[in-house]
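Narrative of activities, Objective 1.

The group set out to show that a structural description can be obtained from nothing but a protein's sequence at a throughput compatible with the screening campaign. Below is one input-output pair from the validation batch, recorded exactly as produced.
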Amino acid sequence: MALQNDLTRRLGIEHPIIQAPMAGGTTTPELVAAVSNSGGLGSIGAGYMAPDAIAEAIDRTRALTNRPFAVNLFIPGAFSLNTDAIEQANARLDRFRDELAIERPEPPTRYAPPFDDQFEVVAQAGVAVFSFTFGQLDAARIARLRAAGTVVIGTATTVAEARALANEGVDMIVAQGSEAGGHRGTFLGTFEQALIGTMALVPQVVDAVDVPVIASGGIMDGRGLAAATALGAQAAQMGSAFLTCRESGAKPAHKKALLDAGDRATVVTRAFSGKPARGLANRFITEMAPLEPELPDYPVQNAWTKDIRAAAGNAEDDAFMSLWAGQAAALSRDRSAAECVETVMAEYAQCLARLHHS
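Output recorded for this entry:
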């Protein structure tokens, strides 16, 4: 069943399904291309990638699909290098490193890739869709992308953020509800003030802006897509639903944790990166919780936990991994990306049929 609207026509896609741009290696070219080839919009999560790696990922994805796909970057924010906070955090992290039999790494030469260079690669590549998170892209860059035919999508966690993005000239807005897995996209006010559920956030954003709205947060199947469209969204952005797909680059232990999630709680934590993010609760989060108020800023903390996360992933030890997941993680399934898109659309049709006959 195809569901066409202004958004799908503008993006050139068959189904109103967007695979969330999960950074850190999850969104492989194979996953992105599989989603796009199935009629949705695949997304490269390029926030942590060096410029040359972004160019390579775009080329590899284009070799696998001739359909539109998106590239996502993180808008950089101000951060401080507090040496006392770094040392205090590392004193605790060293105990985890001892358990994993690794040494504390040398201080990073940089804490995040150069955004200007990342952006230039994406702009020159002429991708169909550019999305961004963690802030506002300046109006000049938005105008440059739009002039080249690129659709620009921003991420908002509040109505105020959605209005700010619309005023800058974005084409579409992702309304990220509090149920969403991974990092919070909040950039105006505190993340606590912006923990608004998807069902409450989406209709308010729809009423506040004149561009298509994409619902995100806790949407795992056709029922979620039906709910999102009933609230006025023109598409759903889904992360956890694609994280366990076979083409996903997520570590096996991460996939297993989601598939076995059951009643396992998700929590919002700063422990891994210094920025609030939702994931499955584990020992690392619990034992770092007392230190959260004093942890280094993002992306500093993120850089200092990278070795631990990598070692834990290689050892398939989910006690020390960032198991990003939304609140509906228990609905995760082991399947291909094509099966995911097909199943969601079939479930959507069944949901509409039930409503029609009720």
